[in-house]
Amino acid sequence: MANTQAIPKTFRLDLMNGLHAFGASVIRGATTKDSFKAALYLASATIDSTATAYTATGEVSGSGYTAAGIAVTNATAPANTGGTGIVSFWTPSASLVFSTVTLATSFDCVMFYNDTAAGKNAVSVNTFGATTVSAATFTLTMPTNDLTTGLIRLS
Amino acid sequence: MQIRSSILSNTEPLVYTTKGNLPISSLEYFHAWENEENHMKFIQGYKLDGEIVKQEAHVYLKKGMGIEAALESF
């Protein structure tokens, strides 16, 4: 029986669950999962892969919207099952709902970030085309939580 | 009960807008779809004399993003 070099499938999942630290890390206060939030950004902002943490710069503002965004529902832990691939994935378990807001300046971006981390570290930046909302609800429905469409996938 | 029923049937629905609650008959409804590679968007709302006074948007993110791990050979 031959050996095969590989990055173990569980490694990806362990990364998502914070079990490895090849560099300096942080002292975690508990073994429980972190809390995450989602903030919206103006179409004129420059949020991209260089984003390191939540920032108020370029964030939307308007009636009904609270700076720093809203809490992300995280009822489903990262997984690596459901297919033959070696992908680990995670997706918020509910839609993001910004109720009765007026965001008159065009926005097109949402940043997910770790609200438990002292540095409010960025997790994901997703764009969805320029949008405005007036005296109504803005909803972001999450993709199917699996190894091909999950919001965050490590392969 | 009969009076109450009568009042309800004669009451025109009001729509919450940036200009307060307005009778639905005074407003013009509009909607639009956007279907892109990574998202689908539905927008609907009302205009008053051409001005948007209510607009909601619902975005479906079709797909998140992936990070690929690479392993160097010795």
Strand order of the largest sheet of chain A: 2-1-4-5
Structural class of chain A: mainly beta
Number of strands of chain A: 6
- Counting H and I runs of at least 4 residues, what is the number of helices of chain A? 1
Mean pLDDT of chain A: 94
Distance between the termini of chain A: 26 Å
Order of helical and strand elements of chain B: HEEEEEE
Cα radius of gyration of chain B in angstroms: 23 Å
* Helical fraction of chain B: 10-25%
Low-confidence stretches of chain B: none
Total strands of chain B = 6
Characterise the protein shown here.
The complex is a heterodimer of chains A (about 160) and B (about 70). Chain A is mainly beta and about 160 residues long. Chain A has one domain. Chain A has 1 helix and 6 strands. Chain A has one helix at about 10-15; strands at about 35-40, 70, 90, 95-115, 120-140, 150-155. In chain A, the strands form 2 sheets. Chain A has a 4-stranded antiparallel beta sheet with strand order 2-1-4-5, with no helix packed on it. In chain A, strands 3-6 form a two-stranded antiparallel ribbon. The longest helix of chain A has 8 residues, at about 10-15. The two termini of chain A are about 25 Å apart. Chain B is about 10% helix and about 55% strand. Chain B has a 3-stranded antiparallel beta sheet, with no helix packed on it. Chain B has a two-stranded antiparallel sheet with strand order 1-2. Chain B has about 70 residues and is mainly beta. Chain B has one helix spanning about 1-10, and strands at about 15, 20-25, 30-35, 40-50, 50-60, 65. In chain B, strand 3 (about 30-35) and strand 4 form a beta hairpin. Chain B has a domain at about 15-60. The model of chain B has no long low-confidence stretch (mean pLDDT about 90). Chain B contains 1 helix and 6 strands; from the N terminus they run H-E-E-E-E-E-E. The chains are: A mainly beta (about 160), B mainly beta (about 70). Strand 5 of chain A pairs parallel with strand 5 (about 50-60) of chain B.
